Amino acid sequence: MKRLRALLCGAATAALATAGLGAFAAQQASGASTDATALSNRWYAAAPYLMPHDNNPPDAGAIMDATGLKAFQLAFVLAPNGGGCSPTWDGTSPVSSDTAVASVISAIRAKGGDVSVSIGGYGGTKLGQTCSDAASTAAAYQQVITKYQLKAIDFDLEEPEYENATAIAHEIGAAKILQQNNPGLYVSVTTAGTADGTGWFGKQMLNEAKSQGFTPNNFSIMPFDGGFNGSAAQTSALTNFNSILQSTFGWDAATAYAHEGFSGMNGRSDTGEYFSQADFQTVLDYATSHHMDRFTFWSLNRDRQCTPPDNNGQTSGTCSSVAQSDWDFAKYSVKFAGVTPPTTTPPTTPPSGGSCTAAAWSSSAVYTAGNTVSYGGHTWKAKWWTQNETPGTTGEWGVWQDLGAC
Description:
- By secondary structure, the protein is α/β, with parallel strands linked by helices.
- The protein has helices at 10-30, 41-46, 60-67, 100-110, 127-130, 134-148, 165-181, 200-212, 231-249, 253-258, 277-289, 330-336, and strands spanning 49-50, 71-78, 88-89, 93-94, 114-120, 152-156, 186-192, 218-222, 260-265, 267-268, 274-275, 294-298, 366-367, 372-375, 378-382, 386-387, 400-405.
- Strands 1, 2, 3, 4, 5, 6, 7, 8, 9 and 12 form a ten-stranded mixed sheet that branches. It has a three-stranded antiparallel sheet with strand order 14-15-17, with no helix packed on it.
- Helix 7 links the parallel strand 6 (152-156) and strand 7.
- Helix 8 (200-212) packs parallel to helix 9 and helix 9 (231-249) runs parallel beside helix 11 (277-289).
- The longest helix is centred in the N-terminal third of the chain and has 21 residues, at 10-30.
- The protein is globular.
């Protein structure tokens, strides 16, 4: 899952650092404050992910002007690539000497917004893996909170870290310490989603939180990259995850929903699933009607249209691979925060299976060589006998041959 989140580019990092120094100096000269004015928790709960160093970072101020968005989830803080227990951006840029990301934060705050910082993500080495215990892990993250005067932080616990019980104990323990030492800190914990809600490692993470007596503002799942097919599969996973929260912590359904979050992926996922604007609206309706605590997505770097719009059936880190106007998906976060986004031209219809002539793929059907199906706006042909193998999940070596967009 989330392979695009591991795409790190040294050249992009250097370019941003250069640009960031200029922006930071200009803001200091103009008297703009870098102090954090806390937003409501609802805004931190609605903050979409933004990579400030890589994947062609968009201008946060332009997004704010176009959508009314106020909060951003900056990603990712990791351990140094060479090892150690000190925080870096993407494993390469020490937080202690950072000016580039600081300038991005300063510009957002100058416009009345704020940021949360996400630690972990897919790929890279996590501080929970390299620090010796929960206290030292918390001390490393406290540097980030202090440096950027954070009012919110996200623990993105997924592969491969969440398969390491010791690392997860360090992360959960650190989260509890930070929560105690920074009164009012908004803490989200994000992990992988499955059709059942979350998998074995996700459940072990919840059990670790229970054993340590730690309750964040929310536990969020990412229902994508796991054979999901649109919003119905996602809301089903959220319902199942609610049941897991109830059974783990002894909560009733309402309490579980009040501690539950959704983290989606806009457009085409890493495994070829498609999530359109209509899918986001459906999940948003589910989240608000069930009084869920969080609604976010990966990522703002991807919240713009590719050229061509379907990106030739490929997933990109810098565009969505569906037809859209810039920042269409950010507006659903704005709605979750309780604000009406500015009116724009309605988006065009994204790719879907509706215009395909082949029958829609079914997980229960048996297919043999030469059978064709439609899935995710593409036509697929079976190379050999198959059942319950989602088209596109194993690339060119899989059972399905991608015949292109319908």
